[in-house]
Automatic annotation (TrEMBL):
Residues 16-311 form the NADP-dependent oxidoreductase domain. It comes from the Bacteria. InterPro entries: AKR (IPR020471), AKR2_Oxidoreductase (IPR053135), NAD(P)_OxRdtase_dom_sf (IPR036812), NADP_OxRdtase_dom (IPR023210). Pfam families: Aldo_ket_red (PF00248). It comes from Saccharibacillus alkalitolerans. This is Aldo/keto reductase. PANTHER family: D-THREO-ALDOSE 1-DEHYDROGENASE, NADP-DEPENDENT OXIDOREDUCTASE DOMAIN-CONTAINING PROTEIN.
Amino acid sequence: MNYRQLGDTDLRISEVSFGTWAIGGDWGNSSDEEALRGLRRAMEEGVNFFDTADVYGGGHAEKLLSEATKGHEDDIHVATKFCRAGDIHDPATYSEEAVRRYCEDSLKRLNRERIDLYQIHCPPTEILKDGSVFGVLDKLKEEGKIRHYGVSVETVEQGMLCLNVPGVSALQVIFNLLRQTPAEELLPKAAEKGAGILVRLPLASGLLTGKFTKESTFAENDHRNFNANGEQFNVGETFAGLPFEKGVELADELRWIAEGRGDMARASMRWILDQPGVSTIIPGFKNVRQVEDNLEAASVPGYSAEESRKLSDYYRDRVKPHIRGEI
């Protein structure tokens, strides 16, 4: 496993890490036993960083992480998120009283004394512009409740706003071959400011595995069903904001990247790891096999300058015009 510094923090984290949305819920049915096996397998292979949130399964993902990392709290770093258990548009959700409650609840579920990276979970832009919540996070950091804090953002604009806040140590962004815009301005600015970059949805909700057809369907409790068009939360969180059938069509045009790189998923994540400023990718998983497959991304060949230009042109000309919502 290769490790990278998370911005200017004291955290050195595995370049392939894992998110826990899928094992918490909203990606169809999952098995706790398989989830725990997957978490432990990842740690055996050198993964030392996991991302979760208090709303993943109503805190269930945090409890799974607590069980899997018991006895390794100093070696395995955990990032969690808050605010979406409340009304994200209500300033009271970001008050000191509310944030302290969210933090203490997460600490209890994680069975830890301190959260390594505490992130605001995709808040509205007006909350970031107000900025009061950052003062609350500064207090929690001073008290030792959290080690560092950051923001999971939906758009480049939000990310740029956050980078003006001295205490923001990391941004979590949607970034993949079907969502390349952050590479233009946000990633360089984050590197300049010393902020780490966590890349979520590196496979665009599975489109970049190349396994879907236009006839593919998803379970009722899978966000790829109930949020396919942004019905429940930001449309960009599902299929990178692309209409599903168009996404399948566009992903099919990328099958060439798998040549010499095992498969499309590994090739897609390799491209992200090669982008300057990226600290880690956090693909999801439900079982050991998916953990092992995702870890292979770190060992496949990178891209030539010509291939990189081809991928950039493909995004600009073929993909970007079809993305819905702000990028």
